[in-house]
């Protein structure tokens, strides 16, 4: 069943990748960019706290993408950040047999709200826990990164190759932002404050993954596992030559149950080095 479904998805991607890109651009042009730097105070709501923000751009872009993507691939389902917030049970579709579109309509909502262009829209297509394709669209920057498993990673049509970091310098690692982490999570990441590592707080997770895939950032180290934040970027990094590991030394699973924190890095040696440090956390 898996092999047959994978062939069907491969055929779909060969035929319809441009349609997915069009859906991303259309959603951003209709719902996100017109609201960028034009939000009123009552256009912004909180979800779980003062740093967990949502806007009409998030909700309406996800609605538009859900309709468009579901229609493109009959039998598929959509797991979107805002839909899961409204009904957590929908997250269970990641464990099912149907192809799943994983959608984060505005990754980096805080940046979006503050008028910073460091936000993006993330879409990934997965089947039975395997991410098969991904799209990272930084609408305000006019950048589109794509990846298909086994076919490489691209930014605006140009191949991406992360490559190893230059020897002899500190590794730059973007970590979970302190505003979004518990005391326990902060403690587990504190092991990265050591010789040879230069940690900094992350911005949009999707754009940090893109920076790794471009070889501009050595690694990320994150303490949460929401699939919409990670699925697209993890495949992008993999297809650019990088890899990802949990603190248990296993690849990150978008279906959950990971030993956290985890890392994604521009090459295997960097991933192993960061994961080894994460394993030393109490």
Q: Could you please describe the fold and organization of this structure?
A:
The protein is an alpha+beta fold. It folds into 2 domains: 2-159, 2-Layer Sandwich (Fructose-1,6-Bisphosphatase, Chain A, domain 1), CATH 3.30.540; 171-278, D-Maltodextrin-Binding Protein, domain 2 (3-Layer(aba) Sandwich), CATH 3.40.190.80. 35% of the residues lie in helices and 24% in strands. The chain contains 8 helices and 14 strands. It has helices at residues 2-32, 56-72, 81-86, 109-113, 183-189, 205-213, 227-239, 268-278; strands at 44-46, 53-55, 77-80, 100-107, 120-127, 130-138, 143-148, 152-155, 158-159, 171-175, 197-201, 219-222, 243-246, 262-265. The strands form 3 sheets. Strands 3-4-5-6-7-8-9 form a 7-stranded mixed beta sheet, sandwiched between helices. Strands 11-10-12-14-13 form a 5-stranded mixed beta sheet, sandwiched between helices. Strands 1-2 form a two-stranded antiparallel ribbon. The longest helix is centred in the first third of the chain and has 31 residues, at 2-32. It is globular and about 50 Å long.
Helices and strands in order, then pairings?
Blueprint: H1 2-32, E1 44-46, E2 53-55, H2 56-72, E3 77-80, H3 81-86, E4 100-107, H4 109-113, E5 120-127, E6 130-138, E7 143-148, E8 152-155, E9 158-159, E10 171-175, H5 183-189, E11 197-201, H6 205-213, E12 219-222, H7 227-239, E13 243-246, E14 262-265, H8 268-278
Helix pairs in contact: 1-2, 6-7
Please give a quick description of this structure.
By secondary structure, the protein is of the alpha+beta class. The protein has helices spanning 2-32, 56-72, 81-86, 109-113, 183-189, 205-213, 227-239, 268-278, and strands spanning 44-46, 53-55, 77-80, 100-107, 120-127, 130-138, 143-148, 152-155, 158-159, 171-175, 197-201, 219-222, 243-246, 262-265.
């Amino acid at each position: 069943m898996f092999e047959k479904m994978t062939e069907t998805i491969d055929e779909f991607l060969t035929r319809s990748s441009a349609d997915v890109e069009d859906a991303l651009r259309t959603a951003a042009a209709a719902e996100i960019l017109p609201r960028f730097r034009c939000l009123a105070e009552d256009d912004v709501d909180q979800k779980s706290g003062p740093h967990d923000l949502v806007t009409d751009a998030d909700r309406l872009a996800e609605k538009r993408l859900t309709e468009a993507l579901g229609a493109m691939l009959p039998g598929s389902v959509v797991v979107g950040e805002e839909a899961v917030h409204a009904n957590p049970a929908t997250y269970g579709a990641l464990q099912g047999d149907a192809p799943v579109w994983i959608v984060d309509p505005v990754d980096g909502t805080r940046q979006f709200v503050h008028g910073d262009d460091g936000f993006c829209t993330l879409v990934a297509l997965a089947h039975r826990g395997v991410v098969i394709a991904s799209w990272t669209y930084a609408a305000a920057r006019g950048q589109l990164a794509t990846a298909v498993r086994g076919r490489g990673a691209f930014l605006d049509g140009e191949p991406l190759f992360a490559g190893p970091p230059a020897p002899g310098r500190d590794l730059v690692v973007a970590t979970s932002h302190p505003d979004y982490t518990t005391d326990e999570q902060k403690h587990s990441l504190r092991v990265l404050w050591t010789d040879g590592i230069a940690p900094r707080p992350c911005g949009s997770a999707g754009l940090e993954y893109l920076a790794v895939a471009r070889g501009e950032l050595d690694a990320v180290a994150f303490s949460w596992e929401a699939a919409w934040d990670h699925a697209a970027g993890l495949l992008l990094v993999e297809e650019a030559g990088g890899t990802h590991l949990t603190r248990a030394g296993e690849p990150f699973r978008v279906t959950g149950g990971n030993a956290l924190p985890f890392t994604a890095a521009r090459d295997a040696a960097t991933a192993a080095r960061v994961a080894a440090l994460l394993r030393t956390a109490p």
